[in-house]
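Q: Got a minute? One more chain.
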Amino acid sequence: MKIVLAASEAVPFCKTGGLADVVGAMAQKLGAAGHDVLLALPKYRSVESAVLQGGAAQALPVPLGTRTLEVGLRYMQRRSVSVCLLDYPPFFDREGLYGHDGSDYPDNDRRFILFQRGALEAVKRLGFKPDILHVHDWQTGLMPLLLKRHYAQEPLFSRTASVMTVHNMAYQGLFAPDCLEAAGLPWEDFSPEGLEYYGKVSFLKAGLAFADRLTTVSPNYAREIQSSGERGFGMEGLLRRRSASLSGVLNGIDLDVWNPRRDPALPRRYGVGERATGKADCKASLQREAGLPARPGSPLVGVVSRLDYQKGLDIAIRALEPRLGRCQLAVVGTGDMALQQELWGLARRHPGLVHFHRGFDDAFAHRLYAACDIFLMPSRFEPCGLGQMIAMRYGAVPVASRTGGLADTVFERPAREANGFICEPADEASLGSALDRALEAFGTPAWDALADAGMSRDFSWEGSIKRYLELYESARRERVKEP
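A: Always. Here it is, folded:
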């Protein structure tokens, strides 16, 4: 099949979080399976020049409302995937991808309208006749509707089916209604059945309403977003109406990147058979790096996370503080300033027990996954979560809340499937109880069984890619049948 993947970020080009890991890995796995994949991305300032070497540049006219802007189209091959980067410096040559200093850019509607129209125009310019247009999250949510309104009558797109994947319902792309003009969409689309969401235009809702197939990133999250306003964010009714077209497909992790046997960031590499000694060496090394005293008899708790209310780290701080005499804590992440202040305060109150590594540091994250004994994910909601899978791959035992993809991957019972500890609900008392169970089990044969079970579990992309291809084929057959 010929597949266009459109997203606002993907490794190795640009990244703020798990979306980039998922899209980058998905593109390569589809390409390696023999499919013709074109990945469309904005060309941000942060895209390194080394990545662009060999990429041809050409001018591409792109409509934005009543104007036509000249956008640079950079096209290149990256392993088994073709990549086109849309380069418009007034919109994308900025400090951050979506905002700066904790605030979104006020023109994000125009920025991502231009990207979406530009991606479709780039497909035309390249003569790439897609069977599938697969878009990801609100930044590309208008594309299924733009396809129907502006491109479906053209021979190149006449048989193109659209698929939208929602990575997190909390991010909806809400903008003033006048953005419809910039997108070239009629006011008739501003309705409860279309893009209207409490008086604003929702880019996410556009994809949910108009894509031929909908997916989200775990089976349990697919159920959750249909069952309650808390998880569906007011769109649960639409999702229930489209339930026949909605599937939950669990993300995988790239086992070439996340492999403790070959990870160049680690001071000591190890597999399942060397887990105990390998992790002990990595733990001792990270403790030296972080200024924590060596305490081989007590567990190191690790957190690799965006600092956000969703992640439940305020709960974690309250639950962990009275237990720090029995463990140490190391955190790497950036985000909410209030949470950063809480973590710095925790480190000041407990010297030698807490280390907070502020900022996104990929190499440190690799080392922390390898060093920690317990990996903490007390999320209030978690569509899929990659951290728990990566941590288990590195022999850490997760303590996680039972929600979204965490409920699909972390099990405390039955014993034959157990690989971690579960708190339910995600509150201080439940998390404290789960931590107590983990701390009591540490160093016992039961702990070794949990860690080995997690390390041995298959979190690869192979099963997920097979499911996506089935969905693509189903959507394509239905599209071909349409008059």
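A: Residues 2-252+462-481 form a domain with the Rossmann fold fold (CATH 3.40.50.2000).
Q: Perfect, thanks.
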